[in-house]
Amino acid sequence: MASVWSPTALSLCPRIFYPSSSSNPTGSQQSKGFRKQHAFSCKSSQGDGKPSCYVEEQLGTRRRGFMLELGFAAFSFPAIVSDAMAKDNDVPEGFRVYTDDENKYKILIPKGWKIGTGQPKGFNSIITAFYPETVTGSNVSILISGLGADFTRMESFGNVDAFAETLVSGLDRSWINPPGVKAKLLDCKSSKGMYYIQYTLQNPGESRRYLYEALGMASNGWVNRLFTVTGQFMEEESDKYSSEIEKMVSSFRFI
């Protein structure tokens, strides 16, 4: 990906994590039997601020830069509303299945949550957002990003420990003066070709935000693409949303 994040974007990004119901665009709702809606272009709430990084000996730095991009892009989706659901058997009580036939994945979402797709400004990516009807900082998003020929599997980014450390340390700005967002890695693991990462972000004077990510790679027949599933909730909302969001992220599957 061509764009790279600037240090300015690092401190701003955690502040724009959730969609505002007042800014939701209006449009016709899709029927519940319809699986995939067309993506539409959305304005970025960050204006023209863009992400950024570099590359040591070409490949290494590009990997690090890409990881920072995907980390921030997953957080900054604008408000987007639509509805596209698919029926499935053996769904846990209180959940339903969202299936994207075009991009070949499915995920569990709580009943009553809103769904929408869009394209973040400045990114050659597709993002799908899932969030409660009430305005909250809790949500789940799926970012699909094209990869270069160097990336053929998740290990192309390094092992899960190195990947997680690079991602989270790249988000941390607690060491600058004045201190910015503090990022802390909680856990990471690799399973069946997927990377799973848990970490927190906290702006000075604000509540801590918990994030769960699942990352996997799949081809669309032409190029490999990275799927980044990011679930997040505020510390004070953990009792209400943590279990649901963890279940959503862990339920992501390619089809």
Please give a structural write-up.
Residues 93-254 form the PsbP C-terminal domain. This is Photosystem II reaction center PsbP family protein. It holds the Pfam family PsbP. GO terms for molecular function: calcium ion binding. The chain is α+β, with helices and mostly antiparallel strands and 255 residues long. The protein has a single domain, classed as Protein Transport Mog1p, Chain A (3-Layer(aba) Sandwich), CATH 3.40.1000.10. Helices cover 18% and strands 31% of the residues. It contains four helices and eleven strands. It has helices at 7-12, 59-73, 160-171, 238-251; strands spanning 40-41, 95-100, 105-110, 114-119, 125-131, 139-146, 182-191, 194-202, 209-219, 224-234, 253-254. The strands form two sheets. An eight-stranded mixed beta sheet has the order 1-4-5-6-10-9-8-7. The chain has a three-stranded antiparallel beta sheet with strand order 2-3-11. Helix 2 crosses helix 3.
